[in-house]
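Late entry, NAP complex.
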Amino acid sequence: MAQLIDGRKISNEILEEITNEVQKIQSAGGKVPHLAAVLVGDDGASLTYVNAKVRACEKVGFKSTRIHLPASTGEEVLLDKVRELNDDPEIDGFIVQVPLPEHIDEQKVVDTIKPEKDVDGFHPANLGRMLLDLPTMIPATPKGILLLLEKSNIDTVGKNCVVMGRSHTVGTPVSVLMSRNKKTANSTVTVTHSRTKDLPVITRQADILIVAIGRPEFVTGDMVKEGAVVIDVGIHRVPAPEKKSGFKLKGDVKFEEVEPKAGFITPVPGGVGPMTIASLLHNTLIASRKR
Ligand code: NAP
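Prediction complete; structure with ligand written out below:
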């Protein structure tokens, strides 16, 4: 039976550290960090994520601003909003929640965000600096995954790490970070994707398996090595008529099958998700200090 990696507990510890920092800033008469979140449209999951981010800001004592635009918002209007936030001295950092409606070019939006306010770490300048191991904003989910491993005292040195998925926001950056020559992440990394052949043969070699493919319960027990560390990034709402909300959350990993084989595993919910939020707030603190 696997040891559960409790993302909620670890993220709460990080939020507490941030709260202490905010109190220090306040008692020194400084400006409290201020995060803005832009949401376009009414996607239920995105609304939940943005609200969770705003609630976390309140918890640590940050200021927060939620900007909710209709799904019909034109690309130029959104870009103008981004420019306004770039120039607003009150805002230390901001995010534009993805996915955006189809008529908006996501990359154009990310390119328009000032890198020093890009607390999601998605701007090309920030990703480039990350690649060069220079001080930067590390994308929140990859940063959260590394923190989960570190705080759970999981040894990464020389381990075989398989990353499933190669998105710009999760798979690719986490694969770069895991292959670093660092005390906290120093693994031999394999990246797999939708064209990978003999996927289970590769995943079974993983000492650390990081799954970010966006396919509910795709990873089954036979794909995982005995004792492996399994980090499940996926979040899916699956219908559950017995629940008041009408849905329950599942990951990319079939938990019931994988948990008995794994050494460590993250649950969904309560694994990577809360760490993403804690890392986002940590990035905002860094952005605010730099300003
Ligand atoms: P994405 O942009 O859709 O990328 C998915 C990646 O998985 C792609 O590289 C794709 O390969 C690969 N893939 C798809 N099907 C596959 C298969 N059958 N076998 C192997 N690889 C496959 O997704 P994402 O943004 O990285 O997100 C992944 C999941 O994490 C989603 O469920 C998302 O909701 C969740 N997520 C959670 C958090 C959190 O805080 N917990 C944060 C971000 C995302 P190709 O490149 O070949 O298409």
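The CA atoms of residues 117 and 276 lie 17 Å apart. Will revisit in the morning.
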